[in-house]
Amino acid sequence: MSKSEDALREAFAGESQANRKYLAFAAKAEQEGYPQAARLFRAAAEAETVHAHNHLRALKGVHGTRENIAEAVAGETHEFKSMYPAMIEAAKAEGNKEAERSFHFANEVEKVHARLYEQLLAGLGNAGEVYAYWVCPVCGYTAEKEAPEACPVCGAKGKMFRKIE
């Protein structure tokens, strides 16, 4: 791998993290009654997304939908089979309940994501129903078509779920 590719991967990771962090900062600013700060955080987050997408394109990291879905399945599967179990064990060993809970939620949801991607890949190209997904704001559980009464991972009320179209 070249130095440029290493730098693009590092930049992609940094810009991606900045995007997520700034969106969290925006939500906090809104909660605290600072709408202008929230808007600037959201604007900067969007700019970071532009940067991240540019870096990913330069890495030739976006392919056809079928290949992108297969890559997503592989990534989600790695997370729930290898990455998060080790993190959960480390958090348990340290007695860090908050980290353990966060890792547990993510691990359970990554299993769902892998399954959803696998189903999508299996039916890709077949004319079928296009529907919304619903995401739990507490753990990230993702449901098809409608929100459940309660989240099967964390127990949050279904009415809290966010509709994604």
Helices and strands, in order, run as HHHHEEE
Structural class: mainly alpha
The percent range for helix content is 55-70%
Strand order, largest beta sheet? 2-1-3
The proportion of residues in beta strands is 5-15%
Radius of gyration: 18 Å
Number of strands: 3
Sketch the major β-sheet.
3 strands, antiparallel
Q: What is the number of helical segments per DSSP (H or I, 4+ residues)? A: 4
> Separation of termini?
38 Å
Mean pLDDT: 96
Shape: globular
Low-confidence stretches: none
Describe the structure.
With 165 residues, this protein is mostly helical. Helices cover 67% and strands 5% of the residues. The protein has a 3-stranded antiparallel beta sheet. Strand 1 (133-135) and strand 2 form a beta hairpin. Helix 1 packs antiparallel against helix 2 (35-58) and helix 3 runs antiparallel to helix 4. The longest helix is centred in the middle third of the chain and has 30 residues, at 65-94. It starts with a helix and ends with a strand. The model has no long low-confidence stretch (mean pLDDT 96).
